Amino acid sequence: xxxxxxxxxxxxxxxxxxxVEADQDEPPLRPPLETxxxxxxxxxxxxxxxxxxxxxxxxxxxAEGYRRLDGEILAGLRLARLCDGRPYPxxxxxxxxxxxxxxxxxxxxxxxxxxxxxxxxxxxPTEQRRRFQVRLLRAVRLLGAAGISHxxxxxxxxxxxxxxxxxxxxxxxxxxxxxxxxxxxMPWQAPEQRPETPPGWVxxxxxxxxxxxxxxxxxxxVVTGEDLDDTAKLDARPELAALLAGVIERPExxxxxxxxxxxxxxxxxxxxxxxxxxxxxxxxxxxxxQRRRKHPGTAPDPESPPPPPAPAARPAPPRPRRDRSWLLxxxxxxxxxxxxxxxxxx
Amino acid sequence: MTTSLLHQTLYRWGTTGRLGDLRDPxxxxxxxxxxxxxxxxxxxxxDLVEPWLRLGDRGVAEPSFFYTAFPAGTAxxxxxVLIRRVQPGDAxxxxxxxxxxSAGVLTPRxxxxxxxxxxxxxxxxxxxxxVNPTSLIAYRSGLSDAARTPAxxxxxxxxxxxxxxxxxxxxxxxxxxxxxxxxxxxxICTVLGSGLRDWDDWRVAFETNDERxxxxxxxxxxxxxxxxVPPPGAEPSTRxxxxxxxxxxxxxxxxxxxxxxxxAGLNELDTMAARVDRLIAxxxxxxxxxxASAARTPAPAARTPAPAESAPAPPxxxxxxxxxxxxxxxxxxxxxxxxxxxQVSCPICLGRLDWGGLPLYTYDRGLNQYTELVVPKDAxxxxxxxxTRTASVRCPNPGDTMTAHYLPAGYGQYGSPAVYGFxxxxxxxxxxxxxxxxxxxxxxxxxxxxxxxxPVDLDRHxxxxxxxxxPLFTESTWLTPTREGEVAFADAFVISGGGRQRAVALFDxxxxxxxxxxxxxxxxxxxxxxxxxxxxxxxxxxxxxxPSFNTVLSLLRASGRLSRVSAAIVLNKADLFKFDDxxxxxxxxxxxxxxxxxxxxESADVFGYMRQRDAEAWTRxxxxxxxxxxxxxxxxxxxxxxRGVRPQRVLRPLVALMAMTGLLTSAEAKDIxx
Lengths: 346, 674
Fold this sequence. Notes:
The structure holds 2 protein chains of 2 kinds.
Chain A: E1 2-9, E2 14-21, E3 33-41, E4 46-54, H1 61-82, E5 95-99, E6 106-109, E7 115-116, H2 126-145, E8 148-149, E9 158-160, E10 165-167, E11 174-175, H3 210-224, H4 238-244, H5 257-263, H6 278-294, H7 320-345
Antiparallel strand pairs in A: 1-2, 1-5, 2-3, 3-4, 4-6, 5-6, 7-9, 8-11, 9-10
Helix pairs in contact in A: 2-3, 2-5
Chain B: E1 7-17, E2 20-32, H1 40-49, E3 60-69, E4 79-87, E5 95-102, H2 108-113, H3 144-147, H4 153-164, E6 169-173, H5 178-193, H6 199-202, E7 205-210, E8 222-226, H7 236-263, H8 272-282, H9 291-295, E9 321-322, E10 328-330, E11 343-345, E12 352-354, E13 360-364, E14 369-372, E15 374-376, H10 381-389, E16 392-394, E17 406-408, E18 418-423, H11 430-442, E19 452-455, H12 458-473, E20 487-496, E21 502-509, H13 518-526, E22 529-534, H14 547-559, E23 566-571, H15 583-587, H16 596-612, H17 620-624, E24 628-632, H18 651-660, H19 667-670
Parallel strand pairs in B: 6-8, 7-8, 18-21, 18-22, 22-23, 23-24
Antiparallel strand pairs in B: 1-2, 1-5, 3-4, 3-7, 4-5, 9-10, 10-15, 11-12, 13-14, 13-16, 16-17, 19-20, 20-21
Helix pairs in contact in B: 4-7, 5-7, 7-8, 11-12
Region (Disordered) (chain B): 284-324
InterPro entries (chain B): P-loop_NTPase
């Protein structure tokens, strides 16, 4: 089947392309989403993509399908923004394009690589285990930097191609800071995402460490082939016990992905988090300035730095800038001495 | 989360009940809407109200109503209880029916309105249902007319002088006017101090018919009415201030009190105590008679006729008016004030009405139209009262600007309606936003905020649902934009939940050129709040903004009303930008909680986003209106309505506007838009 597709790429540019449905079967998605393999004929090349679209089947029907498709697109767009125009790491499924506001919305995603780690549980070659762990944790760290949580990590949404992981299915992804909802399936479902949270736990808001629960259990599962349903199982695996310490804890007490990478000896710097547009930050500051103009008693912008203490207040401590000025003067003096020496020496 | 439903518990005399066996007989809870699987909550409430459930040796024929709201710092802070206690004979004949729940819902006014409810049915099931005050609308009746009868003026001045002397217990004799006096005192206190820091001390608590020799006093302002006690004397130091307040109230109702509050500079004072002090200090000395004469002020039960100069004009059409048809009466509306005939604003045609004496109509659901209310001649007083409580009045439509429309018979007691207009260009989606808001109200979604809403005119409400809501939500079809040059009434509701009932009217104002439209100017002269609907697809460098925003702001500035109009700027069609920061963040948050800090954060984010998208011109309402908020919303949830319409966050601007225009009076509401 040949169709003309009009969509936006991950950077917002409008693209029109001929799409040819490929013969190759795609692993099916769980309704209310479905997928087909397409070959996109772009002016300079042909690329294979998975076209994901809502379908009126499964729990929640089309309405839930639209919501899940939005999750895929939101995650892809944020990862694309994080990488500032460069292709983002292949540890997460890349978003090629999308159309979200039509009667038949869709997302175009890179094809799947490797196999679901479900098929590798307990059998992953020893020499690949550490690399798998590092690549998985870097992928989770990347999601955090993009301000999203996957919320559905498990052996069927994480793939391994012998060299790198590929996290797939962002249909349940949510922004960090959004109210938590019930999502996922046992045993990979973190307690804060279950219908009944354990006593003393609060539902709260999606946090940067929510995915660490499932990622930690997945690391254990891939190495041992067993579910980490009892922390006593770690006693027989001291290397995993050291790596996963604190992972099966409340989200606010869980170590973050960077800490786990450090435990693995991977000390590379984390990616810089997605920053707000400077124009947006200026607009917010202007809002609080206008608010103070209208209501002089109100507080200033909570995100702007506090003003320096008033002169009448206790004396401010010497500022570092003043120290640096001494260094500057010392440097100038040294240069003068050197110049005099050179002149006299000549 | 605050619920608008109330719990109920029925107590009967005995030695056993849901709390087990008692050693000595007394009032025991025998039925309750509280969860029967645990007695903890029942025990908690029993312990709270036990002091007011104690019985005297001998009862009286009439029931006694006890009401109190529990102040901050107590175990039941924010909750209130109403007890209807009956003891016609000795203690064995006693029973008590309790309603309790959020003090924002169970107000003194609601407690007084429910005096004629069919209380404590004989066979209340052991697991009684919760009580929805909205569904009791047929049993609720106000006392605005009775409370403002000039004949009540002197006892009211006496009572108010004691109230102004400060929180504490005040005793007065039971009379036929007890309920009306309480209504008046609550009205006056509510206008003066509701929501202020020390409101807990001044909110009226009462017992209407206490025959017991000893009973407990709740903290704060407590008015206890007993049979046979001597009438209180006026408090000399506060009588002049009380007289000034009562004079305003009897003459002009709560609207006049609000004007007094404003003109006397009370709005700038943040405690009731300070406001009372100001009133006492400013009261004209000549108004205060000598203490000796004050002491002779007639008691409520023994009041003397009002002086001739303040006697009411003959009421127009009060009581049932006879019609030719034998065996029936044509009922007429109760006047809102029996004296001078209060002017009431119609929320639909915005005309000023002389309330009172208008014929009553009832909505015939079978015919889907109003028909004149005919009361059978042999109907007794109670039956007649019940029939007229759900009746409506046909607006005489001054100015003949609209087709026939109707208002609830009790509308006169609600004070001036809050009038909100929706401003925005033809493509802004404001018509869809109004439809989505009305649909959400129809679904009862305001209940999450502790607010109940009843349509003012069922006929027009049904028409709006038929013409605007159902096509959008059921048939997924786009609505026709408002025609140019129109200020179109959309719908109106009687809102309760902020302490008192008040009408809210929604108007869809046509897009683009308003300056040529006379009725738009007239509308802006009375509007309390405006929803500026911004179309984000029109943002961009060099844009001059929405012409209708600019025109409205210019008209308001010219009329000097900018500071008196609150604004909610809605970034509509947010679904089209659902992946943008911070739109994506706010679309995930839509809990029915009025949180001033969250509203401020959202306002700052939307303002910042508009600036980021070169849409400075759309932020003008925030810069120019004193109280203003900004919101993320989507009337349809999608640009492809064939996918199904799913509004997002549409009630938040409306609730913010209710807070900014004084319909909601909680401490949180006071900070909205500032």
